[in-house]
Write a structure and sequence with these properties.
Layout lengths: L1 H9 L2 H10 L1 H16 L6 H26 L7 H15 L28 H24 L4 H20 L14 H8 L1 E4 L2 E4 H19 L1 H11 L1 H6 L4 H27 L10 H11 L11 H20 L4 H26 L1
Antiparallel strand pairs: 1-2
Helix pairs in contact: 3-14, 4-9, 4-12, 4-13, 4-14, 5-6, 5-7, 5-12, 6-7, 6-12, 8-12, 9-10, 10-12, 13-14, 13-15
């Protein structure tokens, strides 16, 4: 404690200014949160906390996929569209048998007994995630083998995936209407909770926690994780050291696609329906959360804890702004300013380091 006090005493005005600049985004977000609480003290409640965690869970899974790409000096503008594609595929395959507007009225792959174990719905979810993983692999191949920049590559696949999803969604005979009437077991898979005493922990939070732990182990305890940071920090040096640049990028983009797909399936069940616009703009939230959480666009820098923290901060602000009735269009402006500020601060740190 005394050492901390001593450090504070020895800080110059320049040190304080540098600290405030490096942490400006967190200061702004804390101020926003305090404003929200001052306007509506009811915002601080267990119920709101649970809702925020539930809504943040799928975003955490998406952001962990995007975070790995940013560490390798990449990005992914197609993430949100992959989420939407997976949501539509999962929802179309997991509609309740008695629903009048089923996309596949004769599909009886799953037992119709609602009391059957929930694991029987995993096959369609894994199928949807595998499809988005293939699109992730395509992104990785174009970037690693054809040397197209991640921005242009994923911009192109974003448009392609939206077109594919829209064609699939605009199906006869019902046309482009939301895919609803989901299987109760599928809904429970995302909307259910497990009780610890009197506190209900949503299943979504558990799934996000499991994915978080797995990605932490992958990034920090495996050779592949070390390769990700090596490629992002200095690609040329990584290649000289024997790291396969192509293999690393292929795997990291494929894994990201799989995570988007899993999150999309959960999102459809959480909301209770899906359309071809599900997941729209989710990639921007994920990128912003990663940068706010300390993942650097200069590459080679980022932690799982930082990504999760960034998502939670963003979700608290999003939920809080909606809670106090801020115009949704104004919310877009605020999020855009946060993204610009976060990237500007990250760029400043990188230039100062050089």
């Amino acid at each position: 404690m005394s050492s901390v006090t001593e450090k504070l005493r020895n800080m110059t005005k320049k040190d304080v200014a540098a600290w405030m600049m490096n942490n400006a985004i967190f200061i702004v977000l804390v101020v926003l949160l305090l404003v929200i609480i001052s306007i509506s003290p009811d915002f601080v409640s267990i119920n709101n906390f649970r809702n925020i965690l539930s809504q943040a869970s799928t975003r955490i899974i998406i952001a962990l996929g995007v975070g790995g790409l940013i560490i390798t000096q990449g990005t992914d503008l197609s993430a949100g569209r992959m989420v939407g594609l997976s949501a539509v595929i999962s929802a179309s395959l997991l509609q309740a048998p008695g629903y009048a507007y089923r996309m596949y009225p004769n599909l009886n792959l799953l037992p119709i007994n609602p009391d059957e174990p929930a694991f029987q719905i995993l096959l369609p979810i894994l199928l949807a995630a595998s499809i988005t993983a293939i699109f992730g692999l395509i992104n990785g191949f174009i970037i690693a083998k054809l040397n197209v920049t991640p921005f242009i590559t994923t911009l192109g696949t974003m448009i392609i995936i939206y077109g594919v999803n829209s064609i699939y969604f605009d199906r006869p005979p019902y046309g482009a209407q939301p895919i609803g009437g989901l299987d109760p077991r599928y809904m429970k898979f995302a909307q259910g909770s497990i009780y610890i005493g009197d506190f209900a922990v949503p299943y979504l939070v558990i799934y996000a926690a499991i994915v978080t732990v797995l990605i932490w182990v992958l990034w920090n305890k495996t050779r592949f994780g070390k390769n990700i940071y090596a490629v992002g920090g200095n690609p040329e040096a990584a290649v000289v050291s024997g790291v396969s640049l192509v293999k690393t990028l292929l795997i990291v983009y494929t894994l990201a696609g799989f995570l988007y797909g899993f999150a999309g399936s959960l999102e459809a069940a959480r909301v209770g329906s899906a359309t071809n616009n599900t997941g729209n703009m989710y990639e921007l939230d994920a990128i912003a959360a990663c940068v706010v959480g300390g993942v650097s666009f200069s590459g080679g820098i980022g932690t799982v804890a930082g990504v999760v923290t960034g998502v939670l901060i963003f979700q608290v602000i999003n939920y809080g702004l909606a809670f106090i009735g801020v115009n949704p269009y104004l919310q877009y402006i605020i999020k855009g300013l946060i993204i610009i500020t976060a990237v500007a601060i990250d760029t400043r740190k990188y230039l100062k380091k050089k």
